[in-house]
Write a sequence for this structure.
C-alpha cells in the first residue's frame, strides 16, 4: 500500500512537472515578445518608407505609427532632464506637443527619402527591466546602421523607450543638447520652447510648399 | 658601465635644448588651456551636468569647433559632395574597404595591447584574406568569410587599461577627442606600418594619396548625418560631444566584454 501510494505520488509529481514544463515552454519570453514587436513595427515602418508616397505623405503616415509604438512622452520627459521638475504644467504640455513633432521630423529626415530600406533583427538582450533588440538597417548606397531598440513592457504592452544608434543613446544625446542650450539661456524653458518651435516651423516650411 | 648607462638615461647637451623648448611649449599650452578652463558651477544639478559633459575647456573647444565647421563648409564638405556625385557608390565602397584594410595592422597591434587575442586573430586574418583575395583590400572578402571589421585604436586600448579619458577636446579639422584619445592618435601614427615606408619609394606617394582619400571618403560617409545633426540639434556642439563620449564608451565596453575563446570556431 505504502509502495503503491508513493508510486502514485511520484507519477503525479512527474505529470505536474511535465505540465508546468509544457506551460513554461509555450509561454513566450519577454525577449521573444520584444523581437516580435520590433519585427512588426519595423515592417510597418519599412512599408511606409519604401512606398511611392511623397515625403509629406510619409510623414503623416509615420505619425500614428510612432504614437502607437514609441513612448514619446516618457522619452520627452527624460530629454528635458532636471528642467522637467521646474517646468510649469503649461510649459510641459507645450514641450511634449513640440517634442512629438521633433521625433516625427527626425525619423522622416533619416529614412524618409530612401527607397529599398531593409532591416535584420539580431540578438535580444535584457537591459535593466527592459529588452534591447539589435537591428541592422540597410539603406541603399549608404553604410549600414546598427541600431538597438530598447523595448519596455512597463505599461502592459511593448513600447520603444529609446534607440541606441552606433553607441550613443538618443535620449542622452538629446538631453545633453537641451541641457547645453538651457545653460546658455539661463535655464529659460520658454527660450527652449521658442527654439523648438522655430525648428519645427523650419522643417514644415518645405513640406507645405509641396 | 656607468658611463654607458648615463649616456642612455641622461640627455646629451645637443638634445637637452629641444627638450627644454618642447617642455616650455607644453607648459605654455597647458597654461593656455588652464586659462580657458571654466570654473565648476555651485548649483548641485548644474555641477552634475558639468561633470557629465567633462568639458572644462568648453570656450576654447567651441572656438575650435566653429573654426573647423567654417573650414569644413568651404573645403572638405564641398569636396566630399563632389566626390559622392562623381564616384559611383560601389567604387567609393571599395575605396572605403581599402582604407579599412590598410588600417588593419593598427587594429591588430591594439587588439594585442588590449589583451584580446581572438580579436587580434580576427584582424590578422582580415588583413591576410583582404590583401590577397580582396585584391589589396578593395573587396572585403573577410566579412563574407565570417570575420567582420571591428574598431580599435590606441585611445580604446588605453581605455581598456583603465586610463581615464581626461577632459574633452575638439581638435581643429580632426574633430572630437579627449586627452587620452589625442595621445592615442599619436600612438596609432607610430603603429601604422605605412609611416615607415622609406623615402624615394612610390609607396610614399601611395601613403599620401591613401591619407587624403581616406579623409575625403570618411567625410563622404557622414555627409547626411552631419547635415541632419546641424539642422535638428539646438546646440550641435553639445550633441557631437555627447555622441562622441557615448560612442567611445560603447566601443570600450564592446572590447572589454568580448570574451570569445581564442581558438577559432573551426577547431571545435
Amino acid at each position: 500500500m505504502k509502495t503503491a501510494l508513493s508510486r502514485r505520488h511520484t507519477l503525479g509529481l512527474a505529470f505536474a512537472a511535465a505540465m508546468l514544463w509544457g506551460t513554461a515552454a509555450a509561454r513566450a519570453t519577454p525577449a521573444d515578445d520584444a523581437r516580435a514587436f520590433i519585427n512588426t513595427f519595423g515592417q510597418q515602418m519599412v512599408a511606409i518608407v519604401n512606398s511611392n508616397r511623397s515625403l509629406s505623405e510619409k510623414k503623416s503616415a509615420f505619425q500614428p505609427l510612432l504614437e502607437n509604438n514609441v513612448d514619446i512622452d516618457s522619452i520627452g520627459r527624460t530629454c528635458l532632464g532636471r528642467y522637467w521638475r521646474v517646468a510649469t504644467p503649461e510649459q510641459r504640455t507645450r514641450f511634449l506637443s513640440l517634442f512629438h513633432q521633433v521625433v516625427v521630423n527626425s525619423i522622416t529626415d533619416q529614412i524618409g527619402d530612401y527607397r529599398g530600406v531593409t532591416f535584420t533583427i539580431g540578438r535580444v538582450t535584457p537591459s535593466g527591466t527592459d529588452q534591447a533588440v539589435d537591428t541592422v538597417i540597410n539603406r541603399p548606397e549608404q553604410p549600414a546602421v546598427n541600431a538597438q531598440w530598447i523595448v519596455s513592457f512597463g505599461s502592459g504592452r511593448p513600447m520603444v523607450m529609446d534607440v541606441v544608434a552606433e553607441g550613443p543613446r538618443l535620449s542622452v544625446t538629446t538631453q545633453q543638447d537641451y541641457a547645453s542650450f538651457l545653460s546658455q539661456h539661463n535655464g529659460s524653458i520658454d527660450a527652449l520652447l521658442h527654439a523648438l518651435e522655430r525648428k519645427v516651423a523650419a522643417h514644415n516650411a518645405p513640406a507645405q510648399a509641396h | 658601465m656607468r658611463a654607458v648607462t648615463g649616456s642612455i638615461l641622461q640627455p646629451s647637451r645637443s638634445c637637452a635644448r629641444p627638450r627644454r623648448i618642447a617642455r616650455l611649449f607644453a607648459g605654455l599650452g597647458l597654461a593656455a588651456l588652464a586659462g580657458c578652463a571654466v570654473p565648476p558651477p555651485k548649483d548641485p544639478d548644474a555641477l552634475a551636468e558639468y561633470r557629465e559633459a567633462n568639458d572644462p575647456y568648453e570656450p576654447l573647444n567651441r572656438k575650435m569647433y566653429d573654426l573647423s565647421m567654417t573650414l569644413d563648409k568651404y573645403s572638405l564638405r564641398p569636396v566630399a559632395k563632389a566626390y559622392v556625385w562623381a564616384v559611383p557608390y560601389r567604387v567609393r565602397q571599395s575605396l572605403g574597404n581599402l582604407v579599412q584594410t590598410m588600417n588593419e595592422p593598427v587594429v591588430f597591434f591594439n587588439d594585442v595591447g588590449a589583451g584580446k587575442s581572438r580579436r587580434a586573430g580576427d584582424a590578422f586574418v582580415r588583413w591576410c584574406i583582404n590583401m590577397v583575395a580582396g585584391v589589396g583590400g578593395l573587396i572585403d572578402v573577410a566579412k563574407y568569410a565570417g570575420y567582420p571589421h571591428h574598431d580599435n585604436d590606441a585611445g580604446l586600448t588605453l581605455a581598456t587599461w583603465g586610463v581615464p579619458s581626461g577632459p574633452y577636446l575638439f581638435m581643429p579639422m580632426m574633430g572630437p577627442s579627449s586627452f587620452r584619445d589625442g595621445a592615442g592618435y599619436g600612438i596609432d601614427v607610430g603603429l601604422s606600418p605605412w609611416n615607415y615606408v622609406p623615402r624615394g619609394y612610390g609607396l610614399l606617394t601611395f601613403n599620401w594619396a591613401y591619407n587624403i582619400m581616406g579623409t575625403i571618403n570618411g567625410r563622404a560617409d557622414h555627409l547626411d548625418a552631419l547635415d541632419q545633426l546641424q539642422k535638428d540639434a539646438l546646440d550641435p556642439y553639445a550633441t557631437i560631444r555627447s555622441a562622441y563620449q557615448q560612442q567611445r564608451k560603447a566601443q570600450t565596453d564592446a572590447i572589454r566584454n568580448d570574451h570569445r575563446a581564442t581558438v577559432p570556431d573551426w577547431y571545435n
Remarks:
- Residues 1-25 of chain B have pLDDT under 50 and may be disordered.
- The beta strands of chain B are 168-171, 175-178.
- Residues 13-36 of chain B form the longest helix (24 residues).
- The CA atoms of residues 190 and 196 of chain B lie 9 Å apart.
